[in-house]
Amino acid sequence: MMISMMLLALLGSLPQDPADTKTETDLSAIRSATEFAGMSFTDEELAQLLPWATNNISAFGALREVPLNHGIAPATIFMPAQPRNQVSQVAKQDPLPEVLRPNNLEDLYWADIPTLSALLKSRQVTSVELTRLFLDRLKEVDKTLLCVTSFTEKIALTQAQKRDEELARGRWRGPLHGIPYGLKDLCSVRGTKTTWGATPFKDQLLNEDAAVFRKLDTAGAVLIAKTTLGALAMGDVWYGGKTRSPWDTSIGSSGSSAGSAAAVAAGALPFAIGSETLGSIISPSTLCGNSALRPTFGRVSRTGAMALSWTMDKLGPMCRTLQDTAFVLNAIHGTDGKDLAAVTVDFTIPGKTDVRGWRVGYSPAHFENSPEHLAALDQLREMGIEMVETQLPQYPVWPLMIILFAECAAAFDDLTRNNLDDELVEQGPNAWPNTFRVARLIPAVDYIRAQRIRTLLMLETNEVFRDLVAFVSPAGNFETLGITNLTGHPALVAPCGFRDGMPVSLTFNGQLFDESRLIALGRAAARGRSASPSAASRTFQRKRRTFPAARPPARTCTPRPAS
C-alpha cells in the first residue's frame, strides 16, 4: 500500500508538458519511482520511458472520470459470459464437392479445404503428395516473404504417411484429414523450436505440445511449418527480418500473425493458426486479403501458447475462405482441462444459410470517406439484411489498455529484470522493452479500476449485441477492435474490395460463442460478391496467383464460387 501511494505521488509530480520531460529533476523522479519498484534502468532507457509515463497520467485521469458503483467487481478472473449453447439458426454443413484431380497439382495452391478434402478422401491425391507440394511452395515464397521460423518436414511427412495409411484402411478423420497447415511460432511442439519470434528465445525447446497442435493432429491435419510472428507477438519484425506482404513485398505483412497471413495469401498454406490479443489476426488478414476468424475468448484452449495477456489472448484460423474457418474452428475449439479460461460450447459448421431479415448493426461514422466499405454495406442491404444504426458503449478504450500493458509486462518480468530485452531487434519508445518498463509505473489501484470498468463494458456490449446477429465495421477500426478484444466477442475478417491495389476488409463482430451465424453471414455476403464479381475481385484472383508463378486452378478443382 505504501509503495503504491509513493509511486502515485511520484507520478503525480511529473510535468505535463512534453517539452520539459528531459530535465534532470524529472529523470531523478522517474528513477526513484523505478527503484521503488525494484528496477534499475539506464539513463537512455529512463529518457524513453518518461514521456510515456506522463501520458499514462492522462490515461489514469480519463479512467477516474468514469463513475463506478461500489458493487462493480473487477474482471480479474476473466470470463466474457457463462457458456451456453447457442441456437444455431444455420443450415448444416454442405457436402464435400465432387472434384477431379487436376492435371497439374500446382493448381491446388489456391484450393479451399472442401476441395482438398474431397480429393484426399477419394484418394485421387495423397497427403504425402499434398505435403510435398506445399512444402516446396512454402520454401520458395519464404525466400521473399520471410514467413517461416522453421520447417517441420520430418513431422509433416510422418503425419502425412500415417494419414494415407489410415485412408487406405478406410479411416477418415474428417475434413482436415491429410491437409497441410502452418502454426504460429508462439505455440509449442515437441522436437521443434518455439522461438516466439524473439532473439532471446530463438533456440528455445519446450517439452510440451500445444493444445491446438494436439487437436489438429487428432483431426488429421499435417504440420509443415512454424510461421513467423513479430517478436513477442508485436508487429512483423522478428529476429530473422521483416515478414513481407505478398501484395507488395516492399512492406511488411503487419502483425503479429505475420507469417500465417502471408503464407496463406501467397498460396503456400491451405490454412494457418494465428493468435490475437489486440488485432494480431485481424490486421495481417486484412492487409493480406485473407479470410480469418478470431473466436470468442475461451473458445480455444491456449495451453502451450505464449502468454501475452491472460485475459485477452485468443487463437484462431487464418484461411482462404470464410467457410474454411469453420472447418478449422470445429477441430480446435473446446477445453483441454489445462487452460482454466477455456470452455467447451457447441459449434455447428454452417452450410449455405438464408440470412434475409437478419439484423446487423453498424455505425455510420465508421464508414465515412470509405467508398469500398460503403459499397459493401449497400450489398448487405440488397441481400435483405436489416442494417441497424448502432452505438457501441462509450468508454475510454485506449486507457483501458493498461490492462494489456500490465499483463504483458508481468508475463515478461524476467526478460526485463535480466536485461534480456536489450536483445530484441526493435527498441525505442514504441517497442516492447519500453512498454514493459512503462508498465512498471501503472499503479495497482488504477489497474483494478480499469478491470472494473471492463466489467461494465462487457455487460453493456452484450446488451447492444442482444438483438443483433453481428456488428459490422471496417477491419482495423480501433473502437470496435479495442472493445471486442476487451469483451471477448468473436470477429470474422471478410475481404470486400481494394484500395490503391491493396485488399480491404470488413469485420463482422458477433455474439459470444455464436461463430456459426457469424460465418454463415460472412459466407452469404461473399456469395453475393462472387455472383457478380467486380473488377477488383478478378484482379485479386489474378494477382495472388502470380506470386510467384502459379497457373489458375482447373475448373475441376473449383466447381463452385469460393465463399
Characterise the protein shown here:
This protein is an alpha/beta fold and 563 residues long. The chain folds into 2 domains: 131 residues, no CATH class; 274 residues, Amidase signature (AS) domain (Amidase signature (AS) enzymes, Alpha-Beta Complex), CATH 3.90.1300.10. It has 19 helices and 13 strands. The chain has an 11-stranded mixed β-sheet, sandwiched between helices. Strands 4-5 form a two-stranded antiparallel sheet. A hairpin with a 2-residue loop joins strand 12 and strand 13. The chain starts with a helix and ends in a 19-residue tail after the last helix. The N terminus and C terminus are likely disordered.
- Beta strand %: 5-15%
Distance between the termini: 56 Å
* Uncertain stretches: 1-22, 531-563
CATH topology (fold) name of the largest domain = Amidase signature (AS) enzymes
Q: What is the subunit organization of this protein? A: single chain
Shape by Cα distribution: globular
Q: Approximately how much helix is present in the residues?
A: 25-40%
The CATH top-level class label of the largest domain: Alpha Beta
Provide the number of structural domains: 2
The rounded Rg comes to 24 Å
- The name of the CATH architecture of the largest domain is Alpha-Beta Complex
Strand line-up in the sheet with most strands: 1-3-2-6-8-7-12-13-11-9-10
Largest sheet: 11 strands, mixed
Got a strand count?
Answer: 13
Write out the CATH superfamily name of the largest domain: Amidase signature (AS) domain
**Secondary-structure-derived class:** alpha/beta
